[in-house]
Design brief:
Layout: H1 2-12, E1 24-25, H2 28-37, E2 45-49, H3 55-61, E3 66-71, H4 74-82, E4 91-94, H5 102-107, E5 113-118, H6 124-133, E6 140-146, H7 147-154, H8 164-172, E7 173-181, E8 186-187, E9 194-201, H9 212-222, H10 230-236, H11 245-254, H12 268-278
Parallel strand pairs: 2-3, 2-5, 3-4, 5-6
Antiparallel strand pairs: 1-8, 6-9, 7-9
Helix pairs in contact: 2-3, 8-12, 9-12, 11-12
């Protein structure tokens, strides 16, 4: 498969770039497993980010679902179309997934709508954050990411990777790591292992529909300087009401949090309680 990929890229005059995080899945058997693990069926629709050479796209389409795939690289888009690398049933969009009107795209598809993607390394974090905004519109999203990013999503309180990203995911979604994949199933081979992670909205929501932006502001301030206490991080982030230290201490007390503790030692639910205790000052 690697030889065929090299020949195709050479014939088309294509050069992969680190800036776009281009590491294509080239193992068709793995692609079929990923489509299974993502729960893709003939019902509903799938949005894929990063078409690459279409290996995963074809596996998704083989399940019978409607597939819309998004590719940023114009050279790859031309190759996919001119070399007929995708089934006729697949809709290929030439666009930057970070600039897409995701609401319009999702609303225009038959539910249930899920996202399945080998996310470009360079865009994985902001795209995953965007998925949290779309959680009420999506059935789930299954994504290939670097193992270190998967660790940041899955980390529990007190673990080294526990931070704002883990807290935001814990408060909004459930997460399960499905597979760990070695570098040799990609081209070019990355220097790290990859994890395939499936994420879906919590059945019992912890947040109100419009609460995430306010929660995120506090959580990011809480973890902004990991060596400082939670109280000092929040003060540095301007989250003490009118600079009132007493008000901040009162909010921490109401949430059941020791003012001298660091954010990494505080469970997500207590951090949520703190956000609510801070009220409009957050």
């Amino acid at each position: 498969m690697t030889t065929r990929v090299r020949e195709l890229l050479s014939r088309r005059g294509l050069h992969l770039t680190r800036e776009l995080g281009q590491n294509f899945l080239i193992d068709e058997r793995i692609a079929a497993r990923l489509a299974d693990k993502a729960g893709v069926t003939a019902d509903g629709s799938v949005i894929e980010v990063g078409t690459g050479l279409g290996v995963l796209t074809r596996a998704l389409a083989a399940k019978g679902a409607r597939v819309v795939t998004v590719e940023i690289d114009s050279g790859l888009v031309d190759a996919l179309r001119e070399e007929a690398l995708l089934p006729d049933t697949v809709e290929l969009i030439h666009a930057d997934a970070l600039k897409l009107d995701w609401d319009a795209l999702v609303d225009g598809l038959a539910p249930p709508v899920r996202v399945v993607a080998n996310l470009p390394y360079s865009a994985a974090t902001p795209l995953l954050r965007r998925m949290l905004d779309l959680r009420s519109q999506l059935s789930d999203w299954s994504v290939m990411v670097q193992r270190e990013l998967a660790a940041r999503i899955l980390a529990a309180t007190g673990q080294p990777d526990y931070g704002s990203f883990a807290v935001l995911h814990h408060l909004t979604v459930d997460v399960a790591e499905q597979l760990t994949l070695p570098p040799d199933v990609f081209f070019p081979r990355p220097k790290v292992q990859s994890s395939f992670v499936r994420i879906w909205p919590r059945r019992t929501p912890l947040l109100e529909p419009d609460e995430l932006p306010r929660v995120e502001r506090v959580i990011r301030a809480a973890f902004a300087q990991r060596r400082k206490t939670l109280q000092n991080c929040l003060r540095a982030g301007g989250l003490a009401q009118s600079g009132d230290r007493a008000a901040l201490e009162a909010a921490l007390c109401e949430a059941g949090i020791d003012p001298g503790v660091r954010a990494e030692a505080v469970e997500p639910e207590r951090l949520l309680a703190l956000v609510r205790a801070l009220g409009c000052g957050a």
